[in-house]
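Batch manifest, entry 17 of 40.
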Amino acid sequence: MTSKNLKIGKHTIAHPIVQGGMGLGISWDLLAGNVSKEGGLGIISAVGTGYYNNKQFSKKDINARPYETTNFYSADGLKAIVKNARKICGDSPIGVNVLYAINDYGRVVRDACEAGADVIITGAGLPTNMPEFTEGFPDVALVPIVSSAKALKIICKRWKQRYDRLPDAIVVEGPLSGGHQGFTYEQCMQEEFQLENLIAPIKEEIKNWGDFPLIAAGGVWDHEDILKMFALGADGVQMGTRFIGTHECDADMAFKEVLIAAEKEDIQLFKSPVGYPARGVRTHLHELVEKREGPKVRCVSNCVSPCHRGVEAKAVGYCIADRLSDAYMGKKDTGLFFTGANGYKLKKLISVQELMHKLVHGEDS
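Output type: structure tokens
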């Protein structure tokens, strides 16, 4: 694998490893900058940039939370994160993950372009109008996340008709990933929707549109898993949770401690205000929510459109923005700690440099 690189649009990644975008604040400048520095593709999460650097870039806070979408997805915060990541990785390619389900999606994509992102990855919906917001930035590579050949076909058809362009790569994400899933609860358990069974039909759909890389994600953990994905037809892999176990990960040490202490049975799927199941560590928060004794739900930041300004949050029993921000800040009692299904395998922290070496050459190299 040492000689295999990954070409995404006009950008060449030395090692075919994309670090998954993890929000809120888990993959910002320190993690993404160091992954890109070590030859992977570091991905900055655009979620909650108003919290960056002690909310320096949030112009208005209520209840210690960035107020409204413009502050929660702070343009100045995102630009500062990209700028500081660049200080670490230099000219190496770096990307930004922008969820399609957020409010102000188009504006945040534009912010990422203006901040200097080389690659933009979008999941949590079908980004059929994504190229509309990157006009004037022809070098920015666009990478949608899909979970089926049908989804890819819809995106390619719309992009070709409206914008005369195709994805520069796609991420195929299976149901073992951390955070929100692109599947129902039932589908997450069914064999046909597992990552290893998604790759072949989606590769076939790619052939109908030309040739662009397929990046496999969801449950990829080590060198052997990467080789397995290559054997199934993937051109690269995306990995999120494994990178939480690094010194450089932007999460608070308490967040890392929660994952290191987690057992396999602690990592579960649970309801989310977004409307799809989400995977994370079951903690005291979930017990409180189930008893309807959790933190009061106030829609301060207005983060995602499917929540309908807190309606779904109140129905589920927690605010996704507030609980993710508490996790980022290390508040174990009220934080929501997303992780992939293999998160229980994290037992100690290592450097990004050491992790990248293990992933490229093998655990014992």
